[in-house]
Write a structure and sequence with these properties.
There is one protein chain. The chain is mostly helical and 100 residues long. The chain is built from four helices and no strands. It is 69% helix and 0% strand. α1 (8-36) runs antiparallel to α2 (39-56), α1 (8-36) packs parallel to α3 and α2 (39-56) packs antiparallel against α3.
């Protein structure tokens, strides 16, 4: 069995194609970052997806896109409650707490 060899041109085409795939995948966190007001995380996501795609293909691109998108979306689903107790509800006083 003969070893497989790539020419320089074939290697550059493969790297470019994988980087292009990573770039197009990286548009997902960039879009989410733009619309959620977290553009910096979106830009970092597209850069990591593109560079990771050039180095190891979709093995790095897909997880980096998922992580960047999660980092953008994680705070948008948190419900911040500002409900305070009603003023007419009886609050135990300090003397009642000490008696029990």
């Amino acid at each position: 069995m003969e070893p497989t060899q790539l020419t320089d041109t074939q290697a550059m085409i493969a790297i470019g194609a994988n980087a292009a795939i990573g770039f197009f995948l990286g548009l997902v966190p960039l879009g989410f970052g733009y619309f959620k007001g977290k553009l910096r995380v979106g830009v970092i996501g597209i850069i990591v997806a593109t560079l990771g795609g050039a180095i190891l293909g979709v093995i790095i691109s897909i997880p980096s896109v998922a992580i960047a998108t999660w980092m953008i979306m994680r705070d948008s689903h948190v419900l911040h409650s500002t409900i305070e107790p009603e003023p007419d509800a009886e609050q135990p006083s300090d003397s009642e707490d000490q008696a029990t």
